[in-house]
Structures are given as C-alpha cells and as structure tokens.
Amino acid sequence: MKPVLYSYFRSSCSWRVRIALALKGIEYETHPIHLLKDGGHQLSDEYKKLNPMGQVPALVIDGHTLADSLSIIEYLDETRPDPPLFPRNDPHKKAQVRQVSHSIAGGIQPIQNLSVLKYLGDERKFEWGHHWINKGFQNLEKILQNTSGKYCVGDAVSMADLCLVPQVYNANRFKVDMSQFPIISRIHEDLNKLEAFKAAHPSKQPDCPDEMRE
Amino acid sequence: MKPVLYSYFRSSCSWRVRIALALKGIEYETHPIHLLKDGGHQLSDEYKKLNPMGQVPALVIDGHTLADSLSIIEYLDETRPDPPLFPRNDPHKKAQVRQVSHSIAGGIQPIQNLSVLKYLGDERKFEWGHHWINKGFQNLEKILQNTSGKYCVGDAVSMADLCLVPQVYNANRFKVDMSQFPIISRIHEDLNKLEAFKAAHPSKQPDCPDEMRE
C-alpha cells in the first residue's frame, strides 16, 4: 500500500513533508484537507482521529499514522536514509540543521499560522505576520552566516532547507522586503532549481485552485 | 573546562536543557542572562554573538556554542547516550517523542513567549496566554492518550517530558484549569518526584529571586 499524505497545497508543514518525500523518491497518494472550507476540514472529528492536533499534514506509512512535519521528516530519514537529510556522524552539524529548522518551524511559522491570525483578528493580522517573519529572518540570516554553504548548513540539502522554502513563500505573501536577506534569498533560489522542490510546490498539488497554478 | 549554560531561571527553554544536563549527570556552570533588566540582556550585542536569535539558552560544550533547546537536547543525547532521552531503535516511538515535544516547544510555547506577549500588548496578554496553552493542552491530552505510559511516551523519561514540565508551570501562571487534563497532570506529578527534575526547577537556580524560592 502506498503511503497517504493528508495535505493542503499551501500549508508550510505539508510542503516540508512533500519535499522530503520527493527527495527520497517515495511514491505516495495525496488526500487533500481543505483548511478554509466549512470552518476547516482539519478540525473534523474524522480527521482529528488521524491527527488530534487538527493540523496538516498527517502521513500514513509503514502501518503508522504520523503527525508533525519535523517528526515525520526525521522518521523518513531514519527509515529511508538515502539521500540523507542530516549530516552523518557529525552531532554539531546536526544540531545546526535542527537549530535552523526550529528557528523557522518553531520560531516563526507558529506565530503567523492560520489559527493564530484568525484569533488575533483581521485588523492586526497583516502587520503581525509581516513583523514576525521579518524579525525571524533577521535572526535567521545571522545564523546562516555561520552555518551555510551552498545550502542552509554546508553544501548538502538538509531538513533546514525544507523549512526555508515555504517560509520564504509566506514572507512574500506578507510583503517582507527580501533584499534585506541576501543569504536566505540566494539559498532559496538555488533550492528552487532542484526537481524535488519543484514537484513539492503548492502550484503542483492536486488541490491547488486553477487560478493559482503557475 | 566545564560546559557553560547561559540561562534564565524561569525560561522554559533553559529549564528543558537543565533537566537534560541533570539527567545525564553533566556538571556545568550557570551564567544567568536576565530577560527583563535593561530591556533584556539576551538582546545585547555580546550575548547575540553566542545566540543570534537573542534567546536563552545557549550552551558552550565540546568547543561548540549551541543554541535552541531541542537541538541542544538532541546533541546531548547523541554525544552522551546514557540515560537515553529517546527510545532506541524504534523510529515510530522516536517520532512520537518528537511529536509531543514539538506540540509544546513549537505549538504552544512560542505563541505565549515573552516577546510575543510584549508585542501583543498588556490588554490581551493574559487572555491570549491562557487561550493558547488551554487549546494546546486539549490537543496534547489527546495525543498522550495514544502515546503515554508512566511518562509522555511509554514508561521511560524522554525529551517530551522535558518539554512538559515547564509548560505546566506556564499553564499555572496563566490560570489554566488543569483538572481538564488528567493525563498531563499525572505525568507532571510523577516527573516532579525525580531528582533531576527537582534540581532543574527555577526555584533552585542561582538567579532565582529570594522571594520566589520554594
């Protein structure tokens, strides 16, 4: 049985996992979960059996149902080691990959995600999203001065890069001035040349509305 | 040279790392960083050389300066495997440990941390903190129904438990009704009986003000 990914085309967390699946050449079926229709299908009782957090993605694989994007990516890397998403046998460099990943997936994205913006209210949401992404990228740019090579940590694609690309997409949605961040911008451009990153893009997903296809 | 932990007594992220260091029996020096004085010492140029994110903790160990609590904990577990903070040779259970950890360290704490509350404004901050911890714990309680034994994942202490304890402390600060969460409450109580958890408590830290010692 093929793995099944419960996903939303524009969700950062779904996108990270799609890149990992594509890099590792894992074939899977996409089961779209619409985050906006009917108040959000991710909050239905049926979906919450798969992921009690009521968030995408969830991945059914190897007889398990996994949730939480970074946990899924680490699982995929442990069970399908090639190509690696972490430097092997280098705990310090692995810590750098996790630091960059968490600075985005823990330090930026959760503060500007859909449910937080909804609770915050329409009046502040654009300025709020802009503020936290801008501030997070100022910090990230400094971290990358120490860790980056061709990609976020050294010259090999890692979990950190899977977090970077969807966050840049959100930065653009919130009109963050990316010219402040030359390292992030350069890495983002290089990553987008890779086939796995192209295949995982929101515009290539079955639930992407026609008017948003590129 | 002893490792040096840059820490604030009441910071959740510092606290997680202190528990890991105590469990593994690693001796270290504490260098307190006051998060409130003079607008926050974590934002000084000097400290930001250690951690460009301007957040505690940072740990100087093995000739490296590490930042980000979960990355530090994973590093300590890779370089000092005993006692383990993850189930060994079980990628599915490891994914559960990370899922619980991220649901707190990525899904709750960042939305109610000091800088977010400050930016939000005094008027909404208490209700906001209460809302997100309460909501996060509702989800977490459901996850723990599937994963917990004596502790968050099975019967061994793991990284997930290191995240749980400081978050319950914050839940109490924000007057969350913990009687809604019998599993979280039971695990929290059991963890607090362990010596490493006692030693890492804010009230035992050198920078804890006298009036807050227990």
From TrEMBL, chains A, B:
Enzyme class: isomerase
Domain GST C-terminal: 90-210
Intracellular or extracellular location(s): Cytoplasm
Alphabetized Gene3D superfamilies for the sequence: 1.20.1050.10, Glutaredoxin
UniProt cross-references to InterPro entries, sorted A to Z: Glutathione-S-Trfase_C-like (IPR010987), Glutathione-S-Trfase_C_sf (IPR036282), Glutathione_S-Trfase (IPR040079), Glutathione_S-Trfase_N (IPR004045), GST_C (IPR004046), GST_Zeta (IPR005955), GST_Zeta_C (IPR034330), GST_Zeta_N (IPR034333)
Keywords, comma-separated and alphabetical: Cytoplasm, Isomerase, Phenylalanine catabolism, Transferase, Tyrosine catabolism
Pathway assignment: Amino-acid degradation; L-phenylalanine degradation; acetoacetate and fumarate from L-phenylalanine: step 5/6
Protein name per its UniProtKB record: Glutathione S-transferase zeta-1
